[in-house]
Specification:
Length: 754
């Protein structure tokens, strides 16, 4: 590769391509880049001054007083000491592991490896600290987040050198990550989750609010160890939780040093860090004292986290792998699009979950775009990130280095053509460097197309048909990001709207914001990070429903409204009419009462924990007769419970046509004669419950024999030769007035004709 200055071929865009603003040599004239390609005609802008570079596109509020590189040799990482932080104090371990520089293989530091007892101690400290932290206001917690941002900003030279030493990324990439971390802390501190007011009357108030989960664990990867740690720290603390960060064992230094330096800014136990080996992750995900896991990493590991966390139903947010497609339309300028494609794919040496990993270039411009992309890539400098000329660093760790090698080996063994590179060992040495490689139009079912390399090897493919390229772009188990590039923004937007990904960009890529929800679909993740949705993911929803004074039972206005509707539906309240005098004066030992006037109907007063009611018990008669027998008390403000019973045959037989048949599944009668009950029993309740049950057709019966309908709960209970169907109203009282969408004769007619 030709040695050029890191800024020479792209200007400051290389550093802040993922931010909201891009800087140019003549930024004052051009302003911010927009979402079309006709701006930024000069990708070879001159490099910014060191002072301007430190501003990182407005991420850092103040430039450093000295150029970063002038201080680069002053930091001796081996002189620093690293420790767990538990309850605000350093906590060493008996076991340690080594961290090495991936660019040189040189030793950097020994770091402690946490024991299970230390995890227990850390969780206990975090739980003890959480109530007091949650009791603070949003503004008080926001002030702390801004102090954490100040810590990074005031020591940016230190943290940038730590990042470069342990992760391998060049100075520009380290500065981008620190600047992003500052930005996320400050912007997240501005977010507030306000209460939602559902009811607010002189008598009653119902609100839903967000309350902290408790203790959160953040499991952070090695590609962006500081930034992705902050993505978990900032919302967790702002929502009122305490947090334990587990950095990657490959890149723990910057995170451990940052959290140690922040202990004077937060109460003890609020912000903790534990480094560990492969055992610590499973201990965290199964620990009963941890309420949520925020994980960023591979899909394979994410599945293990999800399975492990399910043991006690922890909340989880998973940001996992991707295989992002980038679609190039035929109207692009090849020279203009080439730098965009390159940095979309190779930023952070392609060790980026959201990197473009499959490039689809329209056949009309394929050769020209390929040539421009190869020409641009040849000018990129690969090397040690501490060298200011370096633009791409090494692969971060040996495991990933060997994984990337398998993609080279497979491409060579299958005879694929290389537009650039192809020799994995070209840059072999003490550092884990891999040459930039572009695979020319490999098959769609090839390993390089279907899997995620997470390294600097990129397939580019041709396309002609719009439907075909959309199908190919979506033909993956992942769905993290995607992008479409072209001057025909209408066509680009049309294609983008059909791509299956959590974030789809048009004429840009890697544009994120602390206010923008970010997450994947398919096997790229669960839940989202950032924005109000991300902040809400660190909370539980709690509804507070309360009356402002204690009233007489059954006299609540909403209950009264429902009861009045019942009475109006039944015309006017009347005395109960006895169906038959056959059983006059006979007692019903089970209920402890008498059959009035010897009829088949039994009346008694009951009172339970829900409401006062009159119970009308119908002795075995037809449903039609039962409802003709119902008449209610003239006290309109009461709620009622209505029970209808019919004798049940021990065998499953068809019901007579005049009876209710709602218990069918796949046209098979699963219940013979039945009993039904309606709580808060207006005639509308009866009508709506049975209509809902009829509409559902028993398609979705749970293992507990429960069927959830819209606003209604249907429970089927079987005992010996009896089957009971219980329909319970579980919606808001206002739903009583909902008009039925389906009629259910003859029951509706029976009710209407009472």
């Amino acid at each position: 590769m030709t040695c050029r200055r890191a800024w020479e071929h792209r200007g400051f865009t290389q550093v802040v391509i993922t931010t909201r603003h891009r800087h140019h040599r003549n930024a004052s004239q051009k302003g911010n880049v927009k979402s079309t390609l006709d701006l930024e005609r000069n990708p070879r802008a001159a490099p910014p001054t060191p002072e301007a570079a430190t501003r990182l596109g407005h991420f850092l509020l103040r430039p450093l007083q000295q150029p970063i590189h002038s201080a680069m040799s002053k930091l001796d990482v081996t002189a620093l000491r690293f420790s767990h932080i538990i309850n605000g104090k350093p906590a060493p371990s008996q076991r340690t592991s080594q961290v090495k520089n991936p660019a040189t293989g040189a030793f950097l530091a020994d770091v402690p490896v946490a024991s299970r007892e230390q995890l227990d101690e850390c969780v206990a400290a975090a739980r003890a600290a959480q109530p007091a932290w949650a009791a603070k206001s949003y503004d008080e917690r926001a002030a702390v987040l801004n102090k954490l941002a100040d810590e990074l900003e005031n020591n940016v030279a230190l943290y940038s050198q730590l990042l470069t030493a342990e992760q391998g990324k060049p100075h520009a990439g380290a500065m981008w990550e620190i600047g992003g971390s500052v930005h996320w802390l400050r912007e997240t501190s501005k977010l507030r989750l306000e209460e939602t007011v559902h009811v607010d009357t002189p008598e009653r108030r119902v609100v839903t609010r967000n309350i902290p989960l408790g203790v959160v664990a953040g499991i952070v990867p090695w590609n962006f160890p500081l930034l992705l740690g902050v993505w978990k720290i900032a919302p967790a603390l702002q929502a009122g939780n305490t947090i334990i960060i587990k950095p990657s064992p490959f890149t723990p230094l910057v995170t451990m040093h940052f959290i140690a330096n922040c202990q004077s800014l937060v109460p003890p136990g609020v912000l903790n860090v534990l480094n560990g080996d492969d055992s610590l992750g499973p201990w965290i995900t199964t620990h009963p004292g941890i309420d949520k896991i925020g994980f960023t990493g591979s899909t394979e590991t994410g599945k293990k986290v999800m399975q492990s966390a399910s043991s006690n139903l922890k909340r989880i947010t998973l940001e996992l792998g991707g295989n992002d497609p980038l679609v190039v339309l035929p109207d692009v300028d090849p020279e203009l699009i080439a730098p965009h494609i390159f940095w979309s794919a190779f930023q952070n040496n392609a060790q980026f979950c959201n990197a473009a990993k499959r490039i689809y270039i329209h056949d009309d411009v394929y050769e020209k775009v390929k040539d421009a992309l190869v020409a641009y890539a040849k000018k990129i400098t690969i090397g040690d990130g501490s060298d200011e000329k370096t633009q791409l660093g090494p692969i971060q760790n040996k495991l990933q280095y060997e994984k990337v090698k398998t993609f080279f080996d497979d491409s060579v063994q299958n005879g694929y053509s290389f537009a650039l590179g192809g020799n994995f060992n070209e840059l072999a040495g003490p550092g884990m460097f891999v040459p930039i490689t572009i695979v020319d139009n490999p098959p769609e079912d090839s390993k390089i197309v279907t899997e995620e390399p997470f390294g600097p090897i990129l397939p580019i493919m041709r396309w002609n048909d719009e439907e075909d390229v959309i199908k190919k772009a979506n033909d993956t188990i992942w769905g993290l990001g995607a992008s479409v590039w072209g001057n025909d923004t209408e066509r680009a937007t049309r294609i983008a709207s059909r791509l299956e990904a959590g974030t789809v960009w048009v004429n840009e890529m890697h544009k994120y914001g602390p206010w923008i929800p970010y997450g994947g679909v398919k096997q790229s993740g669960v839940g989202v990070e950032n924005g109000y949705a991300g902040l809400a993911g660190f909370t539980n929803y709690q509804t507070l429903s309360f009356s402002k004074k204690l009233t007489n039972f059954g006299s609540h206005p909403e209950i009264s409204t429902a009861s009045r509707e019942l009475v109006l539906t039944l015309d006017r309240p009347r005395r109960l009419r006895i169906v038959s005098p056959a059983a006059a004066g006979k007692s019903d030992p089970a209920a402890g009462g008498l059959w009035e006037s010897g009829g088949n109907c039994y009346i008694s007063s009951i009172r339970d924990s829900t409401f006062s009611a009159s119970l009308v018990r119908i002795h075995p008669v037809s449903f039609s007769s039962a409802f003709k027998a119902m008449r209610f008390s003239p006290k309109w403000q009461r709620a009622y419970e209505v029970v209808g019973v019919k004798e049940v045959q021990p065998t499953m037989t068809e019901l007579p046509s005049e009876d209710i048949q709602i218990m069918r599944a796949s046209d098979r009668l699963v219940v013979s004669n039945s009993m039904f009950e309606v709580k808060q029993g207006t005639s509308s309740d009866c009508r709506h419950a049975l209509i809902a049950a009829r509409a559902q057709y028993m398609r979705d019966i749970s293992p507990a024999n429960e069927l959830l309908c819209e606003g209604w709960k249907l429970t089927i209970m079987r005992k010996a030769d009896r089957t009971k169907m219980l329909v319970s109203y579980i919606g808001q009282p206002a739903m009583v007035n909902t008009k039925p969408a389906i009629r259910l004769p003859p029951f509706i007619d029976i009710l209407n004709n009472i």
